[in-house]
Every structure is written in structure tokens, then in C-alpha cells.
Write a structure and sequence with these properties.
The complex is a heterodimer of chains A (312) and B (432). Chain A is mainly alpha-helical and 312 residues long. Chain A has 15 helices and two strands. Chain A folds into two domains: 51 residues, no CATH class; 217 residues, MetI-like (MetI-like fold), CATH 1.10.3720.10. Helices cover 62% and strands 4% of the residues of chain A. In chain A, strands 1-2 form a two-stranded antiparallel ribbon. In chain A, helix 5 packs across helix 9, helix 5 runs antiparallel to helix 12 and helix 12 runs antiparallel to helix 15. Chain B starts with 7 loop residues before the first helix and ends in a 6-residue tail after the last helix. Classes of the chains: A mainly alpha (312), B alpha/beta (432).
Amino acid sequence: MATITATRDGVRQAAGQPVRRRPDRGFGTAGGHVVRTVLALFFGLPILFMLVSSLKPDDQIFADLSSPRAFLPVGDISLANYAEVFRTVPAWRFLANSIGISALTVVLGVLINSLAAFALTRMRWRGRGLVLTLIIATLVVPFETFALPLLWWANKLPWLVVQDGRPLWTFGWLDSYQVQIIPFVANAFSIYLYYSYLSTIPKELDEAARIDGANWFRIYRSIILPLAGPATATVAILTFLNAWNQFLWPLMSVQSEDLRPVMVGVQYFFQLDVAWGPMMAYATLITIPVLVLFLSFQRAFIGSIASSGVKG
Amino acid sequence: MRRFMIGRRGAVTLAVVATAALTLSACGVASSGSGGSGGELTLWTHNAGNPAELDVVNQIVADYNASQSTYKVKVQAFPQKSYNDSVVAAATAKKLPCILDTDAPIVPNWAYAGYLAPLDLPQDLVSKQLKSTLGNYQRKLYSIGLYDAALGLFAHKSALTAAGVRIATVDQPWTAQEFADALAKIKASGKHEYAFDLGTGDSGTEWWTYGYSPFLQSFGGDLIDRNGYKTADRNLNGDAALKWANWFQGLVKSGYTPAKSSTDAFADFVNGKSAMVWSGIWNSANLSKLGDDGIVMPPPDFGNGPKIGGGSWQWAVSSTCDQKAAAVDYIKFSLNKKYLAAMAEKQNVIPATEEAAALVDGWQPGGAKRFFLDESAKYATVRPPSPGYPFLTTTFAKAAQDIIAGGDPKKILDQAVSDIDADLKANNSYGF
């Protein structure tokens, strides 16, 4: 296959035009290092505080607050808070639920949203501009405003189950996994991200593929989706974070403890006598998967955000 | 330049993740049944994350299920902090359980909204209970508690002794003047950064009302006129309320209490940052960290008698329950003195009856824990049993926060009264 470029720079490169580079504005200088260090401390210290506090008893957490000891694993250090976490919360179950819910939301989200953006960018049909406008318009509507109507509808929707070997329709999605996944698969921001990225891929590729006999789905699957890797990485991470951080919706729509995700578990520690140490331990446990995911995909994530070039 | 393509390995990984997730999804429950269908009664409790109390609830349910074969009660526990949101969401979807526990001050609102059904319990059972464990609205009983909680003035005994201040008791609480003298002397001793920590670091609305409106009532004010529940005028902005507001603000201005306490004022108290702290029975276990130096006293009498908030978590039956008689039968079963005693012992709360108190070490007359029962019986005042309470509490909490922040007390209280009266008018006084 010919060399493919997916960004403006890349397209220029493919067309034989010179690529303009931004001049180095001195971010590598001492001043830049200071800014980077301050930012690193700003974002890193809360995580360090969480990790260190997860090892301390409540009294010591508060006693250390007014000194640098708050960020140091000193004093009465132990894993007792972690033991308390597993006594208070079914943490493994919640983690498994969140991983499953988030993973499925990501997989379905990538598929649905990329297909929607593909239809909006590569296929010609009447009204696609209006549809795109409507999709983007939904970005300004906060979830809280339609949470209750959504709950009402979720309680009316049909679902197919198998009972005694026979398929059976039931009504009401509340207290289930699907109610935590399906409403969040289609996402306007993800569609917009894909739309922006797919718009930079030359249309000539589609035409060449069609001449070779490929249908629309083949073009999507074999050409466009593989080229949209950075956009997919960004959508995957943002969708995962959104699904992982779900709190209000599962609180409203799920009653069984076995189905709850991790964020609802945080509330288990807010009793009248708040268990700060165990809460920090729990926060550490549920932050690790997100950090691992981000570190694994950070290059692709940043690449997509910065619209960096790719070539085949 | 780097290539970002989904290769064969990536596709396989995605497929594995999707399969695992789908398997997990397939294990889900497609729909939940109504609260009381087919001999199963669903029970909701706020105790997720509180194994001590949840264990007792589970034990009562297990005993009840074993005691008869007609009904089976099924427990679903929710975290306390978001419990009310879950209940309101379920009511919207018409999915309330048959039996649910409720925070006492919200009971009239939920009764007015049609979430709860009146409880038909034998009078001899009800009459044994502490009055603050009964959730009444419009002269009907809607909820009943297995226990109550209480607030107290926790103190370092050494701080009072060094300042030459007597220790207050339930029978002989401090007067307003004694309290003022104690604060001045403790501050003068300079041993503690603060003489008295009000615990203002809790931004939750209910703490501000539960914790500080009893002081207002002790001054002679209130959140609303309890003769009719139609206005807050002259109760929340009268002379007594203004005196309370000035005293409340004066605690900060005099440097006795921090304008904003830390997130855990009791931990600061245990660490010696404050000599006294306003907190609740739930911190009794933490008080024991101070050994003999940790004591608890009733609030001062500011003229209208010492007051503490009454009413904790109570049990109710939903109006949509199709097995109401069975639900009430379960609640009757749960009021057995041995369960009340077990709750008091495991959760460190005030047993709802004297019979139950007699079964638990420390709660008998003269016992080490008896203070809270005597204090509750003598000084507990339930929060206004009006369906408008959610608005009352948010309005009062905002006013109290503004007063602590240094605002003009008269303007703040007049505004609060104006807001409350407008809400009452808009809602036709909630049926009163």
C-alpha cells in the first residue's frame, strides 16, 4: 500500500510540500524545567499523599498534615488499612465489575463511534451536516439533567434472557450490567474525535479501494480503522476513564452489591466516623488500573492529542 | 515517525477483552423484581461499609427467615452517604423495596411524597421506645428505630482541671456563663490551639443542622414555628435566634473555635489541638484513646435547657409494598430487646428501650455508657417533623455557614426566613 499520512503535516509531506516546524520556544531551557517540575509536583504530590496515607493510621494522617511527613512513609507504617478495605468492601468484586464494564464500554464505543464518524466523513448522504451538528450539540447537555428520564426509560426497556433453556423477554434494565454499559457506548465527543481525525485521511484511499472492489465496510475495517490508531487510543482512554469514574448512574440504577463498580465503593468509607486510612488504601487500589492503562497508552494518547503523523 | 495500527495481536487482545466482558455481562440480572413479590421481601439498609451494624441487620433477617416459612427477607445494603439518592431514584422508577431504613428527619418528607406507609404497631411496643426513635408525621407513626445517637461535649479532663473548671453532668450542665468562662480560661492557659472545636470542617448539610440547631433551640429559637409548621418567622430570626447567631459567630471571632475545622475535628482533639470538641456517640471509641483524660459532657444550657438532636436511622415500610402486613411483622420481630441490645453493643449506639439497656454492659443505670441514654432521654429534640425539612436543613446550614464566615447575622437570618416561608407558601405548607 502507498505511504499513508493521517495528519495535516503528513498530508503535506505526501504531497511533496514542505512541512513547517514550530520553532523551539525555549521549553527545554531552565525555565521550562522549572515549569515542568512545578507541574509534576502539582499533579504528583496528591498521588504520593494518597499512597503514603494508605499506610498510616487515621490519627497519624492528621498529625502529619502540617509537615512534610505527610508525603513520607514514616511513623506507624503498616498494611492494616488494606486489610480493613477488604473487610469493609468487596473490593475484588467491584474491581472486576469496573474492569468488565469499562472494557466492554470501550470495545463497543470504539466500534460504534468510529462507524458513526466513518459514515459522517466518508459517505455522502443528505443531512449529514445536520446530524453532525445535532451530535455535537448534545455535548452541552449535562448528564445530570437527563439522568432521571434515562432511569425511567431504562426501567421500561426490554431484554432477552434465557430461562429454563427458553428465550424470554423481560422488561426493565435496572440492577444489571447492561444498564451500566449500553447508555454510554455512543458518545458525542468520541464521534467528534473520530470525525476530526478521519477528516484528515485522504479520500483518494477510499476511491482506490473501491476500484479494487472493496465495499464500505471493507474500507472501514481494512483501511480507515487501522489508520485511526491514535484516535482510537484517545477514545479508548477517555471512554475507559468515563466508565471507570461512573458514580451517579450506578448509584441510581444498581441495587445489588454484586453489580456495583469501584467508585460507589468509595462511599463505603464515609460513615459518621470516616475511615480515612482505609479510604486512601481503597483509592490507591482503584487508581492503579487507571495509571497502568494511561502509562501503557500514553504515547498513542499524546500522539493523537498532538495530531502527530503516521505512515505506512 | 511511529506507526499506530491495530495489528493482529491488538485484534486478538480486543477479542479476549470483549469475550471476558461479555461473559461478565451475561452473568447479570436482567431485571429486578418489585420489593415484595412472591413471598420475598426486599429490605434496603444504609449500612454498606459498616460491618458492625450490617451484621446485626443480617442476623435479625436470618432469624426472621428461620422463624417462619411464608416470607423470605432479602437484604440489600447501600453506602450511607448516597443512600437517600438511591431511594429517591428507586421511587422515581417505582422500584422501592418493601422494608427500608430511613434517616429520621427525612421521614415526614417521604411520607408526604407517598413513599412510606403508616406503621400499625402495637401501642405496648411503641410506648417502650425512646421518643426520639419514633418517626411521626401528622400524628401517624411512619418509622421506628432500634437505637438513637446523641451528641456530646467531648473534653480533655486535664484541660478543664488546669483551668479550674468544674466537669458538667447531665443533671448539672454548664450555664451559658460557665461555658463562656471555661472557654476564656482554657484559651488563656495556652495549652491547646483551640478551646473548643465545633467541627465545622464537615461540609455536609445535615451535620450543620443536626449539630448546631440544638444550640439555637437552647437559646429559644427554632428552624420553624412548630405550632402549625407554616412559617419560620420570629423563630429563626427572632431575638433568641439573633442571640444564638451572635454567640455562634463570636466563638470564631474570639478565637475559641476555627472558622473551618479540619476534615476530622475529633482526630485533632485526640491529638491535643483542641481542648473540647462537639461530636457524637460514634466517636466514643476514639475517646478511649485518651484514657482517663477523655470525658464527655452535655451541652450548656443557654436559657431554654440543654438540647441535642434526636432521631437516627429508623425502619419503615414503603407504600408500594404489596406485602405490608409481612413487612410490619418483620419490623415487630426486629424490635425484640435482644436485637436492640445487640445493636447497642456492636454499633455503640443508644438502645431504644430500657429493657434492652439492661441487657448490655455499660448501659444499665450508673454504667459507663449510660451518659448518652440519660442525656438523650432528657435533652433530645427531634428535628422539625415537616415534609419541608430538606429545604429547612439546607437553608439553615447555609445560614449557619454564612454566620461562621463572618456575615451579618440579622441579614442572614432574615433571608433564611424569607426563603423558608417562600418554600412553605409554594408548597402549601406541605399539607399542614
